[in-house]
Amino acid sequence: METSRKTSFDNAKRVIVKVGSNVLTEDNGLNLNVVRSISRQICRLIDRGLEVILVTSGAMSAGIRKIGLSRRPDEIPRRQAVSAVGQASLIMEYENAFERYGTKVAQILLTSEDLSNRKRYLNARNTLNTLLAWQVVPVINENDTVTIESIKFGDNDNLAAMITLLLDADILIILSDIDGLFTKDPRTHTEAELIPMVTAFRKNLEKSASAIPGSLGTGGMLSKIKAAKKVTAAGVPMVVANGNIPDILEKLFNAESFGTFFMPQSERLASRKCWIGYSLKPEGGIIIDGGAATAVLKRGKSLLASGVVGVEGDFGQGAPVEFKTINNDVLGTGLVNYSSGDIRKIMGLQSQKISEKLGQKPYDEVIHRDNLVITAEKDKRHQEASHDD
């Protein structure tokens, strides 16, 4: 297992580094020493020939310090305003820190809508690839001035996972204020043990993670588990480590075993399928029977109307939709060839009967396999597929 970890770092060429608020913040606002340390470490990785993209929190902390507030405001508009003030200071501090090492930075502010719209998704990818070709470090944050949910829940872990998939990165490193994933919260349980490697996402793992919250109102360890599920399912490894350890990034790339390593699946997922499976927000659901689950999970088949037993929500043709079992276990996401209304009319029918019901049959498949992504974990895939064997 340690060999897999070392190989992942040895083979990595494009790296996403996400730094959380708990690392970047001190009592009176942004911790400038940490900003400078992270910047220095990234520059050293670049000197090794790596491409590094930085996903950073800290805008609100910087804004609190700049305005002179005693704490984070409670009201959403005030939080958005504080973030707007702080973002200017945050990028200025990064620019000054990277400039010491002759490296330029570019500020990128994104929302989830930017990554769920295919055209904007591709535009963002092209821009980021251009910056990397120019040897400019992209410094990415969620656009808190227009995104209410990010301020309420502060989930830059998810943003980092989406950027990892957007750019076909080789590894995601999340720097937190604790040493990794523990069996319990190490701040309150002395018997808590560090989990050095995760190879499967079992329920007890999420239970352990949910008991380790973030102290600044962020997603905490559970959001990091969710980010790891996304990237490892796409074949990308992830590490959660303590960002306060001196030179932590260099130590990780020197094969020192810090933090928790999340083992990726063996096959890399194509970029477009990453977008379908992990950037789009499902607009509804399709319930399928055991035979359809087996065909999709084990044989790589398209989803046909004959295997559909239920439809949830209202959605149009081309919409992203989850498909799930009758037990409500989500198996994946796909782009539908028919609207929810038409699927309700043709569900359970053989493909040759579709035209009789709708007056036409533009497609044989409800979801074509090229537009279908399995997001269920491997053990869940085997379990569901075995039900019909």
Secondary structure: elements and pairs:
Layout: H1 2-11, E1 14-19, H2 21-24, E2 25-26, E3 29-30, H3 32-47, E4 51-56, H4 59-67, H5 76-99, E5 104-110, H6 112-116, H7 118-133, E6 136-142, H8 148-153, H9 156-166, E7 171-176, E8 197-198, H10 203-210, H11 220-233, E9 238-242, H12 248-253, E10 260-262, H13 271-278, E11 285-288, H14 290-299, E12 303-304, E13 308-312, E14 320-324, E15 330-335, H15 340-346, H16 354-358, E16 365-367, E17 372-374, H17 378-386
Parallel strand pairs: 1-4, 1-7, 4-6, 5-6, 7-9, 8-10, 11-14
Antiparallel strand pairs: 2-3, 9-10, 11-13, 12-16, 14-15, 15-17
Helix pairs in contact: 3-5, 4-5, 9-11, 10-11, 14-17
Structural features, described:
The structure is a single chain. This protein is of the alpha/beta class and 389 residues long. The protein has two domains: 2-273, 3-Layer(aba) Sandwich (Carbamate kinase), CATH 3.40.1160.10; 282-386, Archaeosine Trna-guanine Transglycosylase, Chain: A, domain 4 (Roll), CATH 2.30.130.10. The protein contains 17 helices and 17 strands. The strands form four sheets. Strands 5-6-4-1-7-9-10-8 form an eight-stranded mixed beta sheet, sandwiched between helices. A five-stranded mixed beta sheet has the order 13-11-14-15-17, sandwiched between helices. A two-stranded antiparallel sheet has the order 2-3. β2 (25-26) and β3 form a beta hairpin. The longest helix is centred in the first third of the chain and has 24 residues, at 76-99. The model is unreliable at 150-154 (pLDDT under 50).
